[in-house]
Each structure stands twice: as structure tokens, then as C-alpha cells.
Amino acid sequence: MACVVLELCKTFKGPKGAIIRAVHDLSLGVEDGELLALVGPSGCGKTTTLRLIAGLDEADGGTVSIDGRVVNQVTPKDRDVAMVFQNHALYPHMTVLENMAFGLKLRKVARPEIERRVGEAADVLGLASCLNRLPNALSGGQRQRVAVGRAIVRRPKLFLFDEPLSNLDAPLRVQMRREIARLHRRHGIATIYVTHDQAEAMALGNRVAVMNDGVLQQIARPLDVYHQPANLFVAGFIGSPPMNLFHGVITSEGGGIRFRSGKGPGERGEITVSLDQDMVSRLSGFVDKPVVLGLRAEEILPVGAGTAMAPESTAKAAVRFVETLGSETHVHLAVGTHEFVACWQGDLASFASREKLAVLFDRRRARFFDPGTGRAIV
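^ thats the sequence. predicted structure below, dont judge the formating
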């Protein structure tokens, strides 16, 4: 049974009475025990969605159902939802113990039970030695742990995380990410985790929901979102570096079908990729029509990598820039006016700028999009 079911719309009035569509026809379900990562650029409607679920904002239309109960008219305190904000918002005059116990005291939970829950959460979060400290005596990571602990002791039906790690530095973000994942496995409470960091969403989510301009673009398992983006926005947003996108046309030549970069039918392009036979039938209706070819950075390989490919799927590329990242290297390349990024294993910083390299385009992993609608074709 789904723990949370959303059917929502929300608009705001902007300058001069303009209508701003914050959440548009959002239809979303979160299963019991699932961690759903909600990701998208700033202003896409992620936080508004959480606020609608928590009851902090009122929807213009639709319903919020939690554990089979429509809660649109239920006050926030009675929705049995715990929310962790970007700013930890601790009471500065209260100790760690008092901050974590505050919500339970308001609910008149018995003192022994409060002490037991706070003690368990403090042990899990590594805060046992900090219980008598005030927030100003804690590090940023410790304060965020206290905010998480305050939510955990509630034992709600639903956790809502609103970019809880964005104010931490990189090592602390990685550490807190591990702790949140471990806590979710331990407690198994349905969780919606909002972030603008697509790597964080991929690492944490059982499923990833991608939003843009208030519209849900795709919801799927992390690797499905990565390898099979539903449209051009998802292809360009998910992944670091994002998917390489090449505009061109599908051509029929010598009994085969190929992709040629260029701006229209009949124009000879700079990049040619022959297509696998299983793609021919799916793309036959797009012959002489514009399409967008999508390839991930790791799907563009240096010649000699041992991958068998048709000669038509190779090109001579100029090296523009090399980023050495340790275990992998991002090589920025160009073929004519087309610039793209390849991700190769090892230290390849010896490539001289503008050196010509032969590269292979892995047609087996190619994705194609309709440039008019932006939707995936195959």
C-alpha cells in the first residue's frame, strides 16, 4: 500500500499579478518504507511540494493522502509527518537533549519513553557525548544530526527532508548522506528527500523523481533515470557530466540507417553513427527528420578500447580541455562545431590541447529524442 499519494496543483501570484505555476498536476505515490529522492533545479517546485504534504501551504487543487487518509483539512501537527529543513532551526537556549525531546514533550509522551528514544537516536547519530551541549558549541554537522534526531524520535509515518545537507561542506555531506541512508534502512519509514544535487538523489533514492518548472518529468529507479531519460531535460540534468546531445537527422543510405549531425535533411554532418539493427525499425519513421542523439560521457571511447563497432561510428576529435579527477579523466572534445565530453578511466592528462584523437560512439547505448517535443524516441 502506498504511504503517500499526491494529486496536487499550486500557484502563486507574482509581480503585477502574474500567475506563477509552482506545482502543476503533480501525480505521485510513495510506497511504505521507500526513500523517494525529489530532484530538480532551484525554483522547480520541490520545496513547495514538501510544504503541501506537511500542511504548511494549502493546495489550489487535488489531494494529499497519507496512509490512506486524505489530510487536506488536517492541521500540520496532526498529520504525523516529521520535516527536516535546510536550516536546522534548533532552539539556541536548549541543550541537544532538550531540542531532541521538545516535540515529544509537546505530545505529552512519558518521560522514561522520551529518555529512551532520545538515547537511542543519540547513539545512532554519534551524539551521546553532546547531549548536554548548547547548539553554539556544536559543529555544523553535529547540528544537522540533532535536527535529524529530533525528527527520528517522533517515529512519524513520513519523513520529509528539505535539502538538509546543502549548508555542509563536501566531506560532511558525504558522511551525513551515509548516516541518512543507514537510518532509513534501520527504521524503514517512508521518506521524501528533496535535493538539487543529482548525485545525492542517485545515491540515496530507491526511486528518483525529477521536476522542472513545477512539472514531474520522470520517476524511476536511479539507473533507469540515468540510462533511459524520458526527455531532453532529464538527459541534460542527470549525470555529471550530463548526457552529450547532438542535433542531426536520420538518413537512409546503402540499405542502412544512420545518424548524421547537421541541421536538416540532406545536409552532410560532421558526425556519423550507424545504428544497430534493433533500432532500425524503431527509427524508420524518422528518416530525413531532425532528431537529437544522446550519449553518456563513458559511451564515447578512444579507438583501441577493444569495443567492436562499425567504422561509421568513429570520428577524429580535437582535445579542448582535460580534467584529471584521479580514477577517471574528463576529456572535452570537439568535432567541427560539436563539443562534447568523454569520461575515460585512468590518468590521461598527457593529451596535448587540440591533439586529434580517434573516438568511437557506442551506438548500442545511444538514445534518441524528438527535438520538437523533447521526448525520448528510443
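Residues 198 and 237 are 8 Å apart (CA to CA).
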